[in-house]
Amino acid sequence: MPTGVSVVIITRNAASTLQNTLDAVQCFENVVIYDNGSTDDTFRIAAKYPNVSLHQGDFLGFGPTKRYAVSLAKHDWILSLDADEAPSPELIDSITKWINDASPSDLGEILRENWMMDQPVRYSGWGNDWLIRLFDRRRHNFNNAMVHETIPVSNISRVQRLSGTIKHTAVTDLSQFLEKINRYSNIRAESGRLKQYSVPAIFFKAVFAFLRTYFFQQGWRDGWRGLVIAVSNANGVFWKYMKNFLKTHY
């Protein structure tokens, strides 16, 4: 059991994957769930686990929401997970050993395996996905990015790669792509931080997003999954900039 580490998860309608995540972290004595508006069985599922601390509140953007959820944890050392992610037993063992000698300046970088409809995606920008997910909140935390939040690294930070993986059940149904495109593009367009582009420029940026994913990032090697991801990325780029464009032109 990794002592002195809290798991922090933000949720919203995560019933389809949350049980798998919580089963994988039962050895942690403090798991914080901060829910922002679930209407499915997310809360009922989470309530079954005695190590889970449940909280509800508003969605403030991914970065600010995760920062607030981190503040609710019992311990300073934080393992941040999404509600569709599960750490492997090897990773938990690695954390247990690593945490004993870690200092607040240390950061744990973990390999995330991204799965789409029962198969791992190795290319398409989804492979070799190393993420900082283990940190001491006294020295590090998430930034305030509304989407694609990260944990900033300073000149005193020491990033160390851990053994084991996080299994990310990214997509179980193709409709999830459409839901994410709509939600994420709304958040980005409403953030006020996007640059304005003309309609032709938006079109070419979307085309480039497809080409980058499918050819430069070798999405074609992932078969139809790579094609779907490339089209989804192109749509995400198109809609976030088009929604931003329409705020001032319609």
From TrEMBL:
InterPro entries linked: Glyco_trans_2-like, Nucleotide-diphossugar_trans
Signal peptide: none
Positions of the Glycosyltransferase 2-like domain: 6-140
CDD domains: Beta4Glucosyltransferase (cd02511)
UniProt xrefs under Pfam families: Glycos_transf_2
PANTHER family: GLYCOSYLTRANSFERASE, POLY-BETA-1,6-N-ACETYL-D-GLUCOSAMINE SYNTHASE
Family: Belongs to the glycosyltransferase 2 family. WaaE/KdtX subfamily.
Name assigned to this protein: Glycosyltransferase family 2 protein
